[in-house]
Specification:
Blueprint (H helix, E strand, L loop, with lengths): L13 H18 L20 H12 L4 H20 L2 H10 L9 E3 H9 L10 H11 L3 E3 L5 E4 L2 H10 L5 E2 L2 E2 L14 H10 L5 E2 H8 L3 H11 L2 E3 L4 E4 L10
Helix pairs in contact: 2-3, 4-6, 5-6, 8-10, 9-10
Length: 255
């Protein structure tokens, strides 16, 4: 393409601006003739999308005297392109991996290495990512760092964060690369094992707490709560039945 070389006018042409303003005012009056106001709900034709995407096309659709069908067709085509673009991102690929990672969750946490191994399994050696790079993406998705039960670098499992990203990248209705019926997401937190639920609960605690609090929140007996806490290996229970994190167990995955 040849570089543009013609001079550009930077000063406002008052005469042309006034003419354009008049034309826009006439268009506005003509376009709103018989307009009864915006509806309280999104028109059925625009319900194929949501959020800011609909927000872009809704006003144009409502004030158009004709050509609404063309507007809808263009909106759908643009929406499909945006979805394909989102699907092609590394964030979308890692979200898809996390969707099927439930079997590897232990104590309410998952290892960055497990995600990295799956991510690299379909790549040539020169295209493979390091664990640190995968961790940066997982952090951007909204998961919080924590050591796993085995002491590996990892993250706290958060079903709400996963569900948000499934919706964001259109993965709730995508299976094997095809749009269709909603696929089954990873197990909701209510279906995780009791040990995993305890691990998720413990990961939110920043101060010592009594065993009775965990037991009450998760519907366990104090004996069950103590046994599960000991299985995770990261916490100590003192003579007062108060739980605190072991000082030699570092939570930060960057350590």
């Amino acid at each position: 393409m040849t570089k543009a070389s013609r001079p550009i006018k930077f000063l406002l042409d008052n005469e042309k601006a006034a003419e354009l303003r008049t034309q826009l005012l006439l268009w506005r009056l003509d376009g709103f003739d018989g307009f009864d106001g915006f509806p309280r709900d999104v028109p059925e034709e625009l319900k194929f999308a949501n959020g800011r995407f609909v927000e872009k096309y809704f006003p144009l659709y409502m004030v158009a005297n004709d050509g609404r069908e063309n507007i809808i067709q263009h909106a759908k085509k643009t929406h499909e392109l945006e979805i394909l673009e989102e699907w092609s991102t590394n964030e979308a690929e890692i979200t898809s991996i996390l969707k099927n990672l439930t079997p590897k969750i232990k104590g309410g946490r998952f290892a960055t290495k497990d995600v990295t191994d799956i991510f690299n399994s379909t790549r040539n050696k020169q295209d493979q990512w390091k664990t640190n790079s995968i961790g940066l993406v997982i952090s951007r998705l909204g998961f919080h760092k924590a050591r796993t039960v085995e002491g590996l670098r990892g993250y706290i499992w958060d079903q709400n964060v996963l569900n948000h990203n499934l919706r964001r990248y259109g993965l709730e209705t995508r299976e094997e690369g095809v749009l269709g019926e909603p696929s089954n997401p990873s197990k909701p937190s209510s279906e995780l094992s009791v040990l995993d639920r305890v691990g998720v609960w413990l990961a939110t605690q920043t101060r010592p707490f009594p065993v009775a609090k965990l037991a009450a929140d998760l519907g366990l007996t104090p004996e069950q709560a103590r046994d599960l806490i000991r299985q995770l290996g990261e916490w100590d229970i003192d003579d007062r039945d108060v739980v605190s994190r072991r000082p030699d167990f570092m939570e930060e995955a960057s350590s």
